[in-house]
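Section 5.1 Outputs to date
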Amino acid sequence: MTNAVSVRIDGDVQRALLTLEASGLSRSEAIRKSILDAAAALRRKDTLRAEVAALEADEEDAKEMQEVAILMEHLRAPR
């Protein structure tokens, strides 16, 4: 089942939509693709945020990062 949606767009959105249509997409395809791409980007951000939180909570990993930072500081050329 499909649902129709009506939206008001401003000049920036109109220009972006024209760009997408110029690539060969129909107006409906461009809008559907944009919505799906935006949702996928949000999911990727949520996934990345969860991975970062897991790494930050890993005490062994934090200790190893600190050790590497100390080693890199010792290897750095004198100023």
